[in-house]
Amino acid sequence: MKTLKIIGAFASIIILSQPVYAQQNEMNHDDHNHSEMNHDQMNHDGHDGHDDHDHSEMKHDQMNHDDHDHPEMDKESTSNVSITTGGPTIVATVNGLVCDFCAQALKKVFQKEEAVKALTVDLDAGEVRIFLKEGQMLSNAVVAKLIRKSGYSLVETQLEGGA
Amino acid sequence: MAFRLVLILVIIVSLSGTVHARPVSYPGGWTFMQKSNGSYSSIHAHYSPTASDSIGMYIERNWQEDITFTGVQYNRLVKRWNGRKSQANFYVKAGVGQAQPFGKNGAQIAGFTELAMDWETRRWFTEYRIRATDYADNQSIHHSGRLGIAPYIGNYGDLHTWLMVQVENHPESNKPTTTTPLVRLFKGVQMLELGYTIEHEEWLANWIVRF
């Protein structure tokens, strides 16, 4: 009976607790709304296949996104969330990424950096994608240092996009 | 039998060639750990100033030794190995405080030390711990080993599930070797373990949350 009470108490705590990490895993879109944004106001520099039609009167939420890519956006492997920062993205291959607890350390450390807009973790690929603010950059040495500070080791980095 | 299993776990850990480490804490992070089983219930809250150290309070009510321990605990990640698809850690833990026998006055200085090592991939988990305690007039050494498998591989942010078997050895106990099948669930910052110790017919319930 005593143990059942203990387990019941734990279950209540778990259920009532906010899934903090899961929320951090997703971008906060509360402060902007694409549905009111006109397509001709968007950055289409990286789009393909738009030569034969005009979207200038069409709103973003009415569009079919199946046949074109958004190179400046990157889908997180763990969710269907897109991230656009306007800045470059550093893809860091990291050793030791085997659990969510580990990934949390990276988030906590990198999000203290002024240049970092967001960060996602792909456990399958062992990769961390560091989305930087427009006009910002982190050197390889700094990335390696922050990853080491989180408790991991950097294998290599690649740079994607950038203003 | 228990020693053989522990030995096997140690060998697995030591032979894991591409072993690398995992952080269980991050700089500036707080952790709250609660453990409860047939032998003791404990609460451990600690702060990690770096990814290699943590310090905090530890309180344990030990049902086998009829003692309440209250003290300060320090954990040190001595070595961490990060592999491409694995990680391993070697920890030293130590605590000092006072032990108060149940229903009696006269708390005495007490302490403990523990060595722990683990190795895990996203599919497999192994752990071995040896803990020596000196709670007032009760001194003991306790071994513990775990082997776990993840029935599915979840990605970041998913609910992760592990099926584990924990084997413990308390040489002074009337049932020195115990076996506890358990399930570990963790999602985000929270981890919950529920198990059942067969020999003692007692439940195990552990909960960890990080801030």
Could you characterize what this model shows?
The complex is a heterodimer of chains A (163) and B (211). Helices cover 26% and strands 22% of the residues of chain A. Chain A has helices at 2-16, 20-24, 100-110, 140-150, and strands at residues 74-75, 82-83, 86-95, 116-122, 127-133, 153-160. Chain A has a four-stranded antiparallel β-sheet with strand order 4-5-3-6. Chain A has a two-stranded antiparallel ribbon with strand order 1-2. In chain A, α3 crosses α4 (140-150). The longest helix of chain A is centred in the first third of the chain and has 15 residues, at 2-16. The radius of gyration of chain A is 20 Å and the shape is globular. With 211 residues, chain B is mainly beta. Chain B has one domain: Beta Barrel (Porin). Chain B has one helix at residues 2-15, and strands at 29-36, 40-50, 53-62, 67-82, 87-101, 108-120, 124-135, 138-149, 160-169, 177-187, 190-197, 202-210. The chains are: A alpha+beta (163), B mainly beta (211). Chain A binds chain B through residues 3-4, 6-7, 10, 13-14, 17, 19-22, 25, 76-79, 94-96, 98-105, 108-109, 120-124, 126, 149-153, 155, and chain B through 20-29, 34, 36, 51-52, 77, 80-87, 120-122, 153, 155-158, 160, 186-192, 194, 202-203, 205, 207, 209-210.
**What is the approximate shape of chain B?**
globular
Distance between the termini of chain A: 63 Å
Strand order of the largest sheet of chain A: 4-5-3-6
- SSE series of chain A: HHEEEHEEHE
Our estimate of the beta-strand percent of chain A is: 15-25%
User: How much helical structure, as a percent, in the residues of chain B?
Assistant: under 10%
* CATH level 1 class label of the domain at 72-160 in chain A: Alpha Beta
Radius of gyration of chain B: 17 Å
State the CATH architecture of the domain at 72-160 in chain A.
Answer: 2-Layer Sandwich
Rg value of chain A: 20 Å
Average pLDDT taken over every residue of chain B:
86
The low-confidence runs of chain A, each spanning 5 or more residues with pLDDT under 50, are 10-82
Q: Can you tell me the CATH class of chain B? A: Mainly Beta
**How many helix segments of chain B?**
1
Q: Outline the low-pLDDT stretches of chain B.
A: 6-23
Determine the most extensive contact between two protein chains: A-B, 42 and 46 residues
Terminal residue distance of chain B: 40 Å
Number of helical regions of chain A: 4
Largest sheet of chain A: 4 strands, antiparallel
Q: What portion of residues of chain A is helical?
A: 25-40%
